[in-house]
Amino acid sequence: MTGGGIAGGANDREFEAKITPIIIISCAMAATGGLMFGYDVGVSGGVASMPPFLEKFFPKVFRQTAEEGSESNYCKYDNQGLQLFTSSLYLAGLTVTFFASYTTRVLGRRLTMLIAGFFFIAGVSFNAAAQNLLMLIFGRILLGCGIGFANQAVPVFLSEIAPSRIRGALNILFQLDITLGILFANLVNYFTNKFKGGWGWRISLGLGGIPALLLTLGAYLVVDTPNSLIERGHLEKGKAVLRKIRGTDNIEPEFLELVEASRVAKEVKHPFRNLLKRNNRPQLIISTALMIFQQFTGINAIMFYAPVLFNTLGFKNDAALYSAVITGAINVVSTIVSIYSVDKLGRRKLLLEAGIQMLLSQMVIAIILGIKVKDHSEELSKEYAILVVVMVCIFVSAFAWSWGPLAWLIPSEIFPLETRSAGQSVTVCVNFLFTAVIAQAFLSMLCYFKYGIFFFFSGWILFMSVFVLFLVPETKNVPIEEMTERVWKKHWFWKRFVESDYLEAEKVSDGNDLVSQL
Ligand code: BGC
């Protein structure tokens, strides 16, 4: 989850449910899953800009950054090993997602979260104690495994434990936790950089242990979800847990629905094959495209490499880390804006407005750099440096109230029940894959394209905005089970996919109706 997708239940009928302490504890747990993810996003770029860290693990980069004028400014950090330090985490996460979807189903949500917690703790330990590059990368791979397990299990756990009326809000809350994790990492880097003795980076990498321990402890303490218990045949236990989490004895209707939903889910023999059916094409294309586009906004060039980027432009270490704290804070605040506006303004308005804002800010950055930092050792004057930071903030704020949360929210609300979990796995994988691509390529692209890299991202932003304009339907306030009728069948382009498979689609919705009648 990433911000992982928190889908609605079998349908969105309201059952009696109180916000019980166990629900609050569960939300706090989700916070640690999101914090952990965000912390890992934010921490790597900061430590990569610290000279003692570079000297120990990347001596070549260290020499390039230390010796004035020896290398073009834009190419100082161009190093595959340094990029692997960031990207290895996502490559591991991507691979593990497939196992995670199995353990989430067979071992349960709680045990999968516990596994994630152990991986996190092991990864943090390797990173904080790293003596060589191998230990460092191995630690990142362990963290990636943790993220693969956590991003699958935590969102599912949350969507099942939360009463349906707060599911949508929880989805964006998970994204908020990610941004808080990034900000926390930025702040930690800012302070540890000041430590004498050159081991501040160990504290930065080691402090990831706090959310890791909390997640492990939380997973140990909570009970598994009723859905998971029922799915694994523990009907009575599932019922008892449902009573406990809803804070009422009146749980029979919901219990029956869960039993039926689990039966229907078991009947879906080939969820991934289902996903490829023609009538699921719109959901699959939109979800995949949203994830690819989200990464090609260039957001992670900023989230991963802001300190390195600001260093490239001639900021001193302290100023670079400080500027990363500012962009991190803007990211958090703007995500809160999204929570308030997503169900009022709707998804399309946010995505399109943000497209314009992101396009303009990236173009301005490219133009400033193009004129002022053409090559070699030219550095930005203070006024222009501030202007670039302001433009980065404008870009980040637009991303944070649109593509950040919505690229996760929309896939979680458009897949029908029969393909929801498979759709979710594919969505997470595509996100991780393209996050890894950006992590592995950005510093080399910066070296090669120089300021043109921002024109490259601008081009993508233009393209994705046109995609949204014509192909992403509004899903604001549409209950999940009415998507086919109210959204796909009415869409100028996508209707051809659902209409030709009309009978088949009907069969599925009949199945869903059956579930909701019980
Ligand atoms: C993205 C991450 C990104 C984060 C920034 C998420 O939605 O998936 O790749 O780092 O937003 O806040």
From TrEMBL:
- Could you identify this protein by its name? Uncharacterized protein
